[in-house]
Amino acid sequence: MENISWDPKWEIGNELIDSQHKTLVKLINDLYFSCNKKEFDVATALSFLMEYAVTHFNDEEALQLSCGFPGYKQHKKMHKELKATVSKLVARYLKSGSSSDLKSSLSKVLATWLIEHIKHEDKKIADYI
C-alpha cells in the first residue's frame, strides 16, 4: 500500500465530516506503516481507529437524518459491515500478531473501503445536500 494522500475532490462540503475523513486517512496510513514496529501496539491502534470511525459514522448518519438523505438505511448498513470487519481484524491480530497477510487485509479493507466509500457513497450525500 502506498501512502494515501487526501484529495480535495473527496470533500463533501461539511467541515466536520471532511475533517474526520482526513483524520481517518491519516490514522490508516499511520496504522499500516507502523504494523511491523516492535514498539507499536497494533491492537490499540486498531481499537482507536474503530472508536474514531464509530464517532465519525454517528456524525455522518446524523447529518444524513437531518437533511432527509434517502440512502440513509443502506449507508448505515455499510458502516455496520465495516465495523464488523474491523472487529475481525482486531481479533485476528490478537490471535496471530502482525503479518504480511494482516497488512494486506488492512490495505484492502481499510484504505480501499474508506477511499471508495468517500468517493462514491459519501459524495451521494454531498450531491443530495
Describe the structure.
With 129 residues, the chain is an all-alpha fold. It has one domain (13-128): Hemerythrin-like (Four Helix Bundle (Hemerythrin (Met), subunit A)). 78% of the residues lie in helices and 0% in strands. The protein has 4 helices and no strands. It has helices at residues 15-34, 42-67, 72-96, 100-128. Helix 2 packs antiparallel against helix 3. The protein is elongated and about 45 Å long. The mean pLDDT is 83.
List keywords for this structure.
129 residues, mainly alpha, Four Helix Bundle (Hemerythrin (Met), subunit A), 4 helices
Tell the overall outline: elongated
Low-confidence stretches: none
Helix content: over 70%
Number of domains: 1
Q: How much beta, percentage-wise?
A: under 5%
- Find the CATH superfamily: Hemerythrin-like
CATH hierarchy, class? Mainly Alpha
- Total strands: the figure is 0
Entry summary:
The chain has 129 residues and is mainly α.
Secondary structure elements and pairings:
Blueprint lengths: L14 H20 L7 H26 L4 H25 L3 H29 L1
Helix pairs in contact: 1-2, 1-4, 2-3, 3-4
